[in-house]
Amino acid sequence: MLRQRTIKTAVHAIGVGVHSAKKVRMTLRPAGENTGILFTRTDSLKACALKATAHNVCDTTLSTTISHKDLRVSTVEHLMSALWGLGIDNLIVELSSEEVPIMDGSAAPFIYLINTVGVVEQAAAKKYIRIKNEVTVRNGDSFATLKPFAGFKAGYTFVADHPVYNRYPKRAELDFSKASYVDHVSRARSFGLMNELEQAQRMNKCLGSSLENAVGVNDFNVVNPEGLRYNDEFAKHKLLDAIGDLYLLGSPIIGAFNGYKSGHAMNNQLARKLLETQDAFEMVTLNGRDREVVRPILQPASAG
Question: Three-state DSSP class for 109?
Fold first, then answer.
């Protein structure tokens, strides 16, 4: 039986919110079986927890924000993607501000942070969402879809006609029974056009954005002195985002995801449509012999 996971002990990090530019202290704490991923705000007088679920998504403008009643947490997608990558089912995330720290704009710092303390298997069986029938959402020529597949495969096509973007692959697709999320996806960073930054900041977005937490693109080149981490980093970051958004379903997927020009809004629409289509999925647990089909990572539970 494949079992649920949490972290061994609490671990802390300090960073800034990419949209708010506010300094934030984050603490990750172990959580009991069947807890799921819970967010709490230490700066709030309300002693309540916000569950990371697709139905709690309230805003998808340049990031994914979840809320319930008066509690709100934004930019959860990179952390959620990292938690999927490490197979973490149960966790408490404490934040001293509204936004998850952006770190370097990828999921890799969260993975490093968790691996410093290690993960532990729990007694309860891990639950998977097995896709039985195709579910698709569309908006014009953009779409996002989930289909049956024996494992988890994800692909994304990034469509943007720009001299710099056009130099690099627009399509990324990985079968995660064969490829490591940690090695091939987790380091892909947020990115954007430098000439669009001022407009975003007028919307009170990207106030904390810098070349330390994003890939900047001008009219001719990638601005970051170190260049790209992957040749297809733009498409892979979109894939990283989609994995994080879909992990708000509460369980990892057994199936295939494909996105074409989709973003946070469409990812959430897909997750909600799946939950509303009862014959499209089933909840399952798996035996140990299925590990090679569904494993998201290469690290063992005792890593760190």
Answer: helix
